[in-house]
Every structure is written in structure tokens, then in C-alpha cells.
Amino acid sequence: MRVLLPALTLSALLVGGGGADAAGTRPPPGASSCTGCHAEGSAMGVLAGRPEAEIAGALEAFRSGSRPATIMNRIAKGFDAQESQAIAAWFAEQGKP
Predict the structure, then answer these.
(1) What pLDDT, on a 0 to 100 scale, did the predictor assign at position 20?
(2) Which domains does the chain have, with CATH numbers?
(3) Structural contact between residues 39 and 15, judged by C-beta atoms closer than 8 angstroms
(4) Residues lower than pLDDT 50 in the chain
(5) Which of 12, 49, 93, 95 satisfies CB 3.0 to 4.6 Å to 32 for a cystine?
(6) pLDDT of 18
(7) 3-class secondary-structure state, position 95
(8) C-alpha to C-alpha distances, 89 to 10, 22, 69, 70, 94, nearest whole angstrom
(9) Nearest Cα to Cα of residue 5 among 27, 43, 45, 33
(10) Exposure of 31 by Cβ count < 10 A (0-12 exposed, 13-18 middle, 19+ buried)?
């Protein structure tokens, strides 16, 4: 996992996930690693604009193991509840005009 998160972060930065959003705010730590798989046109579902509670709940379910996953369970364990909530709040705001 120590190798995976930096690789995901690098991947996200290469596809433009590490910069500020349209409002000029920076994502919380860890959020930029999500965009590698969860950005518009990517392999997995887009996170931007989803309800904050849905994103935070999914991260908690992955972290606890109650939601099966191949990789998200390992990624989610890298964030505590506060970090997950900050990530969820930031992505929820990204879909708003």
C-alpha cells in the first residue's frame, strides 16, 4: 500500500487532479489520488457532485470491509474518518455550479 498511494497520487497529478478546482480551492490531502479512477471519462464512477454522505459512507464501508472491493478497501484504510469526510465534502462541492 505504501507504493500504491504515491503511484495513484502521481497518476492523478499527471491527469490534472492535483490542482485547484474552478473556485480556486485546493483538494484536501488524499482527494487528488481519487481523480485517477473517478474523474470524468475514467474507468470508475465520477465522484464530483455526488452527495457528501454517500461518498463518506462508501469510504467507511470500504474501510470496515462491509463493502467488498478489490482495491478501494486498501485505499480507504489510508484515511481516517475526518480525512474521509473532508474528501467527501470536497467532491460533493465539485459538481455544484
Answers:
(1) 53
(2) 4-16+30-94 (1.10.760.10)
(3) yes
(4) 1-18
(5) 12
(6) 47
(7) coil
(8) 22, 15, 22, 24, 9
(9) 33
(10) buried
> What's the predicted TM-score (pTM) here?
0.73
Closest alpha carbon to 32 in 22, 47, 17: 17
Look up cell 473556485; give the residue: 23
Instruction: Provide the grid cell at 27.
Output: 483538494
Angstrom distance (rounded) from CA 10 to CA 14:
6
Burial 47-83, CB ≥16 within 10 A → b, else e:
bbebeeeebbebbbbbbeeeeeeeebbebbebbeeeb
